[in-house]
Write a structure and sequence with these properties.
Layout lengths: L1 E5 L4 E5 L2 E4 L2 H9 L9 E4 L2 E4 L5 H15 L6 E5 L14 E5 L15 E8 L3 H5 L1 H9 L3 E6 L4 E8 L8 E8 L3 E6 L2 E7 H4 L2
Parallel strand pairs: 8-9
Antiparallel strand pairs: 1-2, 3-5, 4-5, 6-7, 7-8, 9-10, 10-11, 12-13
């Protein structure tokens, strides 16, 4: 792992190995030219191309279980994707699960933008520091309304809401932890559409 210093907070952030820094536009050009492919397992975070961790069985189980559980309850105005990009000003992360407003066919020529993402989920084991620090900052700055971190180590789900947006220290202003005996509310556009058993979502 690589350690980064957040210049705004002097906080040490643990991150994936970095390759080089580029813009979102350059990143898209490299993908279109075939210089980067899905086999490279990279995502763009604050201008850095970052290697994604290999998905282990518990991570895969939780990702698919959450995707299926949310798909079963969301209204027709939304759809669920798994490990697909979200295009931001300086980043293009590929969260484990995301709920997008609109129809899947609306995104045949582009990826969703932050304002179109109602809920975003990261499943965290070895990436917990990155998800709680680096990615939380990225998602808070972008204004992602609801951010879940499925903390496999502590067997809980942390729900972050009230993103700060473009501030000096982007973050979320509210966080609730749901443990195995709890039900976690699924909130889209400020409306709760259902609730899921945390125990049933964990491996």
């Amino acid at each position: 792992m690589t350690l980064l210093l957040n210049p705004s907070t002097n906080e040490i952030i643990q991150a994936q190995p970095q390759l080089w820094q580029i813009s979102v536009e350059r990143y898209h050009e490299m993908l279109e030219a075939g210089l980067l492919t899905e086999d490279d397992r990279l995502e763009l975070l604050e201008g850095y191309l970052v290697e994604k961790m290999t998905v282990n069985p518990p991570h895969a189980f939780v990702t698919e279980t959450i995707r299926e559980a949310i798909t079963a309850i969301i209204p027709a105005l939304f759809f669920v994707s798994s490990q697909q990009p979200v295009t931001m000003s300086d980043s293009e992360p590929e969260p484990d699960v995301l709920v997008v407003k609109g129809k899947r066919r609306d995104f045949t020529q582009r990826h969703p933008m932050p304002e179109e993402v109602a809920l975003l989920v990261e499943v965290a084991d070895s990436t917990i520091n990155q998800d709680k620090n680096w990615k939380k900052r990225i998602y808070g700055r972008a204004g992602i309304a609801v951010y879940w971190i499925v903390n496999l180590t502590e067997r809980q789900i942390e729900v972050y809401t009230q993103p700060s947006g473009l501030t000096a220290q982007p973050t979320y202003h509210h966080m609730v932890t749901y443990r195995e005996t709890d039900e976690i509310p699924v909130v889209l556009g400020g409306v709760q559409i259902g609730a899921l058993s945390v125990r049933n979502l964990l491996p």
